[in-house]
Design goal:
Layout lengths: L1 H18 L3 H5 L4 H18 L6 E5 L5 H7 L4 E6 L2 H9 L7 E5 L11 E7 L7 H11 E12 L4 H8 L16 H10 L3 E8 L11 H11 L11 E7 L15
Parallel strand pairs: 1-2, 1-4, 2-3, 4-5
Antiparallel strand pairs: 5-7, 6-7
Amino acid sequence: MVDRSRRAEREIAHGRRLAESDTERIWGWGMPAGRLRARRRAELIIRGAGLGPRVRALEIGCGTGLFTEMFAESGANLLAVDISEELLEKARARRIAAGLVRFQGGRFEDTTVDGPFDAVIGSSVRHHLDVQTALVRIHALLRPGGRLCFAEPNMLNPQVFMERRLRRWFPHVSPDETAFVRWRLQRLLGEAGFTEVSVVPFDWLHPATPRPLIRYVQRMGWWLERAPGIRECAGSLLIRGCRSDGDRGVSRHDVRH
């Protein structure tokens, strides 16, 4: 418990430092390529989770609300939680879709949320959590047939790997965060009770890509995401799973890259 408490304190302090700066630029979402990357990521999560009108979703680690705003465009009813009150202030300042989005502070593993949910979603957040504990809780919060969909950093990507080994040179990386290797994550999802598990490498568009090269990199990335072996080094993983111990009410959506 002590270690978890200290980890939470470090995450809160990290969120405070990020909130004091241009948070989205630090994360890479504020640049031209970064904005396109964020939009594509949001669309993949929306389709993978089956978000839409009358769907009730829990977003874990909403941060500044950048992705919350895009998720809300689907018409889903969102409860968005984050451990950092400073980042939540930025999220609330967006004034997103009144009546559809509610923000709540607290560490996901401890905070009280009113389930069940049709979907649990997030972008670049599960690597901040106690993964096994979080997966079990997510499964419990989903209604039968509910879906999980996240996009997370891929440890097999060279930059992601270096960021986790040389944290002091990368201010956007918190002291305790990690990244995932997809085969281990697939196993953990299965152990937590999820079925229809899919962990797919994607995302070759670096946020710092100069504007004139964006289309070229996007086209090249389309091929690299389909190339055996090479695709394992993509920047991100698209993670999906289902709680299938009952009737389904969320329609299935194929995720196309």
